[in-house]
Structure formats: structure tokens, C-alpha cells
């Protein structure tokens, strides 16, 4: 892959009581628990999900 940059995404706030599509973005990124960290490929799709739930997560470039 030419664009093999990765992002470390950490869930900081609870997904309960959030909008349905925001919960879907959390699940789509593979996050389940608060303070869980996952590594995802830096794609426009993943960036879009991260932008939607930016108030719930922290992002670090790897």
C-alpha cells in the first residue's frame, strides 16, 4: 500500500447516550471500552468517522 500511515485512536468518553450514528462510528473503528486504543489505517473513511466523534476520542499519528 502506498498510503500505509496509521492512526492510534483512543476512546475517552462513554458511547452511551450518544447519537446512533456516533455509536456506529465508535464500533466501526473497533472501539469498545473507555481508554481502549486501536490502530487504524489513515483512510478518508476512517478520518470521516474520527471527525464525527472527535469530541469522544484522541488521535495520534504513528
Protein topology:
Elements: E1 6-11, H1 20-28, E2 37-41, H2 44-52, E3 57-61
Antiparallel strand pairs: 1-2, 1-3
What report would you give on this structure?
The protein has a single domain, classed as Ribosomal Protein L30, Chain: A, CATH 3.30.1390. The chain is built from 2 helices and 3 strands. The protein has helices spanning 20-28, 44-52, and strands spanning 6-11, 37-41, 57-61. It is globular. The model has no long low-confidence stretch (mean pLDDT 94).
Summarize the structure.
The chain is of the alpha+beta class and 62 residues long.
Gap between N and C termini, in Å?
16 Å
Listing every helix as H and every strand as E from the N terminus to the C terminus, the arrangement reads EHEHE
Superfamily (CATH H level) name: Ribosomal protein L30/L7
Helix content: 25-40%
Number of strands: 3
Global outline: globular
Largest sheet: 3 strands, antiparallel
CATH class equals Alpha Beta
Number of helices: 2
What is the level-2 CATH architecture name? Answer: 2-Layer Sandwich
Helix-and-strand structural type: alpha+beta
Domains counted in the coordinates: how many? 1
CATH overall fold name: Ribosomal Protein L30, Chain: A
Amino acid at each position: 500500500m502506498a498510503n500505509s500511515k496509521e492512526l492510534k485512536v483512543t476512546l475517552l468518553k462513554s458511547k452511551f447516550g450518544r447519537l446512533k450514528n456516533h455509536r456506529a462510528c465508535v464500533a466501526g473503528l473497533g472501539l469498545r471500552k473507555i481508554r481502549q486504543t486501536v490502530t487504524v489505517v489513515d483512510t478518508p473513511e476512517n478520518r470521516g468517522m474520527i471527525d464525527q466523534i472527535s469530541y469522544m476520542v484522541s488521535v495520534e499519528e504513528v
